[in-house]
Design goal:
alpha/beta; six-stranded mixed sheet; about 15% strand; binds beta-D-glucopyranose
């Protein structure tokens, strides 16, 4: 038995560090592995997995009273194994709405509550850190992990991300905003070089992270797999130290994303760059670091600095406090939170002739495979092992609406068959198809089948679903409807409309799809996203009007995928269910770099500035009631601008409304998008006739753009317009305010090494 050293407390970190050998300190910096990786702890004989199915753990030392700590995915709930050998007890975690759905609530208070629930499950299942939220920008609709992220806009990302981190950490566990930075795509994600201008980096890709770090101090940050302007994020001193720590004041630990030892990267260089923890951990990495210190290629001060960061993290954890996890979080209470938050994130795209809320609806013909296998979340590490998923049949049943028997019977027989077939046929390298619910093929819907259902149904509901996940992006064919889906919508709509019966389409997807070519065939369209385990109930709450829709899009829905300026530099990946190509480290080969030639013109910043037609603009979302904005004011107060606006419910039912505040800058020397979102706030539930005054604070700094030639933030002096809108294209009121010049110098780092063909006005 090793002799005891000083026992770690939050006050004696220096003393403990002094007592530790070089080898011991190094082991703190390398994870203890998981079921797929050996981990550095193997060298110490530590191989027990503390929480089965958790993503990884850090190395503990009994000798110093340093516990191992447990890191678990992910953004939509705790990702651990639901069952364990030798016990009939289950460890299901609540499946909360995916990131896009949560952001679409535009309600930070609600997101905070979801965060608290996720934090509580993390704590009660014996984990210390949740690996989330996902703060990457949804650069293109085809991004495979868009569902885990919040928006194409950094203001939404930053505000919603701050609420999530604060909510989770209020439970005494940590978070790991990821993937820092510019994990814009999944194609070849462990190698791709994301080439971005300094301006777009600062203004778009880093700004959400910056806000979250400054306002919520996450315990950890996860470096991304990709390279940023030629340098791997996990080896990027400018990114991890100069920007994150020196400029933004980050105090926690940086960990790598889950990769073994990189063949093309010396481990010691990652340690020097500011990676405190190499995950999931590999014995060779510890050996490399020790050797590098001994041969002088790594300064021991770097090891000491990172080891200190690790101990400062460890003393905050529940494991250090000897918290006794119950393994029994209140799943019922959390199901209620997921039901409420997903209903609030759903976006009503269309509602002709007030088709919704439903009235006198007794029986529906329910089409689309995913009506019967509703997708609660995405695929990969961000999936959650949920106790159940409420599908559309059950959700409708719970509000007293029946589905036509013969059609329901066909689908209910088909789903288990299609699942078994998919499992048998799947490419074994597609590990992530086992994590979450993969999408099943649609059934061909004939005219005869529809005419059999028609007499028994008051309406048709069609679910159109999309699935995506880690390691692969979507292809254009995934954005567009398939032939089977198109035929189904055409045929159902022509027969039901001929009989005077409505057609409602539910979109069950984590990201946008093509809608412009078929939307005229539906009376109502509701985007349900991937809403978590209570999905069918949340949809039903919106259909009945129990919840008045108040969700708004946090990304533009383009007419066609080719309209987006980033598409031409985005990997167009094939249908991954039928993939034959070889994989390397879980990723498709061959996509080496992606030039972000669109620069700052991501999402609405492009469509709005260049006046391009879209299917549904950023910020769009209908309601069952109407609202009026009035009395918009903008006043300067110190370094801030205080914006107030009055919102009145002018319709007939109670509802909530979001005030989206856009700012249009005066013409100056620096090119600016037509307008940019700078703040938002949501009302409480307003009764008909009721008003609320919303107050928002915009730091003058937030108006600044990044001026590359002087490495500074600059807001040029002049008259700025403050606009309140229902979406970026529907501005209701505006006021003007004179602002003096604001500048702030920062470091000249992270410049691209190749010339980009940047888009300009
Ligand atoms: C993902 C991360 C995740 C990690 C641990 C990686 O493949 O990119 O988002 O947190 O695995 O599961």
């Amino acid at each position: 038995m090793a002799q005891n050293g000083p026992q770690l407390t939050s006050k004696n970190i220096d003393e403990v560090l002094k007592s530790m050998t070089l080898e011991e300190k190094v082991q703190l910096l390398v994870g203890d592995g998981n079921s797929g990786f050996v981990g550095s702890g193997a060298m110490l004989g530590h191989q027990s997995r503390l929480v089965e199915g958790a993503a990884g753990q850090t190395v503990g030392f009994q000798k110093y009273g340093i516990p191992a700590t447990v890191l678990t995915d992910g953004p939509a709930g705790v990702h651990i194994n639901a069952t364990r050998e030798g016990t009939s007890k289950t460890y299901y975690a609540t499946g909360f709405p995916v990131g896009t759905c949560l952001a679409s609530t535009w309600n930070p208070q609600l997101v905070y509550k979801v965060g608290q629930a996720i934090g509580n499950e993390t704590l009660e299942y014996g984990c210390d850190v949740v690996l989330g939220p996902g703060l990457n920008i949804q650069r293109n609709p085809l991004g495979g992990r868009n569902f885990e992220y919040y928006s194409e806009d950094p203001c939404v990302t930053g505000i919603i991300g701050t609420a999530m981190v604060n909510g989770i950490q209020s439970e005494g566990v940590g978070t790991s905003p990821k993937h820092f930075a510019v994990n814009s795509q999944e194609g070849d994600r462990t190698r791709v070089d994301e080439r971005v201008s300094q301006r777009a980096l600062r203004e778009i890709y880093l700004r959400g992270f910056e806000r979250v770090v400054r306002q919520a101090q996450p315990w950890t940050v996860m470096a991304s797999y990709n390279r940023v302007n030629g340098v791997y994020s996990q080896d990027n001193h400018d990114l991890l130290t100069t920007v994150l720590r020196d400029e933004w004041g980050f105090k926690g630990i940086v960990m790598t994303d889950w990769i073994g030892k990189r063949r093309d990267l010396p481990t010691e260089s990652e340690v020097h760059a500011g990676d405190d923890l190499l995950m999931p951990g590999y014995p060779q990495q510890a050996q490399d670091i020790v050797a590098a210190v001994k041969n002088g290629t790594l300064d021991v001060k770097d090891v000491d600095r990172n080891a200190r960061n690790m101990l400062e993290y460890i003393v905050k954890t529940p494991s250090f406090r000897h918290y006794k996890a119950s393994d029994a979080p209140d799943l019922k209470a959390h199901a209620a939170i997921t039901r409420q938050s997903s209903a609030e994130g759903m976006v009503l795209l269309k509602n002709d002739n007030n088709t919704l809320p439903i009235r006198n609806l007794k029986t529906v013909a329910l089409f689309g495979v995913n009506s019967y296998d509703f997708l609660s979340g995405g695929l990969g590490s961000g999936a959650v092992n949920v106790p159940y998923v409420v599908d559309m049949v059950q959700g409708l049943k719970n509000i007293g609406v029946k589905t036509t028997a013969s059609l329901t019977n066909i689908y209910e027989k088909y789903v288990p068959y299609a699942k078994a077939k998919l499992k048998a046929d799947k490419n074994p390298e597609m590990w992530f198809l086992d994590q979450g619910q993969p999408k099943l093929d649609e059934i061909e819907i004939s005219d005869r089948l529809i005419s059999n259902e028609l007499p028994h149904a008051d309406a048709a509901i069609i679910t159109i679903a999309r699935q995506a996940g880690e390691g692969m992006d979507r292809g254009a064919s995934d954005f567009n409807l398939t032939d089977k889906e198109r035929d189904m919508i055409n045929r159902v709509s022509s027969q039901f409309h001929a009989a005077g019966k409505p057609v409602i389409v539910i979109i069950n997807s984590g990201a946008s799809i093509e809608t412009a070519s078929w939307r005229s065939l539906a009376d109502a369209i509701l985007v349900a996203w991937q809403p978590g385990e209570e999905g069918g109930n949340s949809v039903a709450d919106v259909l009945t009007g129990k919840v008045c829709p108040s969700g708004h899009l946090t990304a533009t829905w383009p007419v066609s995928i080719g309209d987006d300026p980033s598409t031409r530099n985005f990997p167009q990946q094939p249908d991954y269910y039928n993939l034959t190509e070889k994989f390397d480290n879980g990723n498709l080969k061959g996509v080496n770099y992606s030039n972000h030639d669109e620069g700052i013109y991501v999402g609405y910043r492009y469509y709005d500035t260049f006046k391009k037609n879209v299917a549904y603009p950023f910020g769009y979302g209908l309601s069952y009631t109407t609202f009026e904005f009035s009395k918009l004011t903008a006043k300067k107060s110190g370094d801030n601008i205080i914006v107030t606006v009055s919102v009145k419910n002018t319709g007939k039912v109670s509802g909530k409304q979001v005030a989206q505040i856009y700012v249009a800058a005066p013409k100056g020397t620096i090119e600016k998008p037509a307008k940019e979102l700078k703040a938002f706030a949501k009302t409480a539930l307003l009764k008909p006739g009721q008003s609320e005054t919303l107050k928002m604070t915009i730091p003058v700094r937030d108006l600044a753009s990044f001026d590359e030639s002087h490495s500074q933030w600059i807001a040029e002096a002049g008259r700025y317009a403050f606009l309140v809108g229902d979406n970026v294209e529907d501005i209701k009121e505006s006021v003007r305010l004179d602002i003096p010049e604001y500048t702030e110098k920062v470091n000249n780092v992270l410049a691209p090494k190749t010339k980009l063909d940047l888009l300009h006005q």
